[in-house]
Amino acid sequence: MSEKGSPLDQVLASLLDRRRARNQLRRLTTVPNGTVDFSSNAYLSLSTQSVVQQAFLARLEEAASTTAAADSSSRPSLLGSGGSRLLDGNSAYAESLECTLAAFHGAQAGLLFNSAMDANVGLFSCVPQPGDAIVYDALIHASVHDGIRLSRASRRLPFAHSRIWEESRAAGTAGLSSDTSSPAGESLEAVLRSLLQGPEGALFQSGERNVFIAVEGVYSMDGDVAPLVDIVDCVERCLGQGNGYVIVDEAHSTGIFGDCGRGLVCELGLERRVWARVLGFGKAVGCAGGMVLCSSTTRSYLINYARTLIYTTAMAFPSLASIETAYDFLATGQARPLLSHLRLLVQETHRLLLAACARHCPPAEVLRVSIEQPRSPIIPVFTSKPRDLAAHCQRSGFMVRPIVAPTVPKGDERIRVCLHAGNTMGEVEGLVAAVEAWLSVILKSGAQCDESTALEEETQDQTPQLAPPNREKAKI
Q1: Which residue among 62, 79, 322, 417 has the highest number of C-beta atoms inside a 10 angstrom radius?
Q2: What is the pLDDT, as a whole number, of residue 71?
Q3: Chosen domain end from 282, 315, 331
Q4: CATH code for the domain in which residue 394 is found
């Protein structure tokens, strides 16, 4: 073997070099101690709440004492589940938790997965049948794209982000700030109408073939909220035979929207009009894992056909206990003060960022913030120098991450500010002061806003493209 490695290593190294030249190389990093978190998805800071930690440890101690008293031949495992749920990894505890969570979210049934990504891939890869269609928001999460690729659906069509009706109201921008531009494309209504045309259209009109519509409750890169009522109305209007099935990824809306964090679907009273929901427990819930909320029949079907459930070791007791602990905290209303504080932080952060822009009047390519009041804890701050701004904030003790292409389209680069119930007003003020200090230096220097010549002259990666050419988001 040469010092340069195998021929395959050399090919992989050249592909990494290409990404490095475009300033797009991903790396694993750790957060320095003492850094203020404005990056993670733990919006309610549940995992750091002492009462939650104590309740979780109490569950573990109770289970450990019960296990110690049991006969060795019947002693349950606390460290691992022992296998797939279809073999030895299932438990009465897991099934009871599924029933509890389904009832909490107003669903008939639920099925746990090891992650929300596994839930999305499992659901979309096995449910659509040959001849069916999947219609998805152009900004749908990468895990849904992966499931769509593996599905047997005959048609896979995107619609313009959150544009529902053909006479869609375009989001306007004005003054010192601007909303991010939506990817070009047709509205949901136009895409659904197109399915009803042509030789195969009669099969969709009659209900012989099904259409699955994939959207998110809250989109993780822009923090915007899906117009779910319009989406459901549009689907029911266009597909009058009831063969339109809306699937909502609630990973970023669970815990934040709805009574006691039940999610956006519950907040809007759409439980009976949305066919399935995918929950993610790694965001506001503060744990790990995912779940599909669905009918009892769909649950049985997933147990038989969802490969991401069948061919993986099931979650161990500590993971299940952490989910139950967090949901107890939510269901009893203990998270309400945290959510109230979080909403105040969101309003104040947005106000301070707009005020900073008003004071300095930066060109839009240097820095811009949407004038629209945020409805989620995610606030994108757009800049063509996201790495430079993020590095400055990090040196000042505030962890924010740069978001660049291909996670977002070129021209939509930003830092993403994620707020948490554990943040303070003083920390918010410090972050905005750091952003403003950076902005002052940039404007005084008159520096050009290209992050690098290589980034400006970016060309398409020549590696095989498995995903559709639409913007495909990754969770950070």
Answers
A1: 417
A2: 62
A3: 331
A4: 3.90.1150.10
Domain identity same for 303 and 376: no
The chain-wide mean pLDDT, for the chain, equals: 89
Do 436 and 430 contact (CB within 8 A), yes or no?
no
Which pLDDT score, from 0 to 100, does residue 65 have?
85
Residue 83 per-residue DSSP state: S
Task: Please tell me the predicted confidence (pLDDT) of residue 146.
Answer: 97
Q: Hey, is 380 helix, strand or coil?
A: strand
Please give the share of the chain, as a percent, with pLDDT higher than 90: 79
Task: Report yes or no on 347 lying in a domain.
Answer: yes
Q: Give the tokens for residue 408.
A: 């977002």
**Domain membership flag for residue 268:** yes
In a domain, 361, yes or no: yes
CA-CA distance, 371 to 380, in Å (whole number)? 11
Do 432 and 353 meet the contact criterion of CB atoms below 8 Å apart? yes
3-state helix, strand, coil in the chain (%, to 5): 40, 15, 45
Q: Which residue has the tokens 């060309």?
A: 459
Binned at pLDDT 50, 70 and 90, residue 68 comes out as low
Query: What is the spatial distance between Cα 436 and Cα 389, in angstroms, rounded to a whole number?
Result: 10
Structural domain of 366: 35-48+335-450
pTM of the entire predicted model: 0.89
Q: State the alpha helices, DSSP H only, in 139-278.
A: 142-150, 188-195, 201-206, 228-238, 264-267
CATH of the domain at 137: 3.40.640.10
